[in-house]
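I hope you will forgive my troubling you with a question about protein structure. Could you please explain, in whatever detail you think fit, how the structure tokens follow from the sequence? Thank you for your consideration; the sequence and its tokens are set out here.
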Amino acid sequence: TDCHIEFLSQIGDYLNGRASEPRVVSHTECRIGKWLAAERAEREGLRRTANLARLEKVHLEFHEACEEALALARNGQYSAAKVRLSEAYRLCGRMTRLLSKFNFTFC
């Protein structure tokens, strides 16, 4: 999740006027998203673990929160954007805890 933490930092810098808007990467294009897709394919036909299902959900919610924070900022709603960014940080922490249950090498 180091890549995700770096993305959060870039969004924070953007919201505070210290950087340009960061490039958004979808939940399927980032390193964790690609790893999740491989895990899903490997487990096809088998019952997915509860932790994997939770991780997929939290990962998607993280990316949605980041995209919403950026959209709110584009519309000048910086206070609301910072609230969504805080939520994204919380979700990133949950992702880290869930990823620790798997053999995943952080970026």
Observations:
- DSSP finds four helices and no strands in the chain.
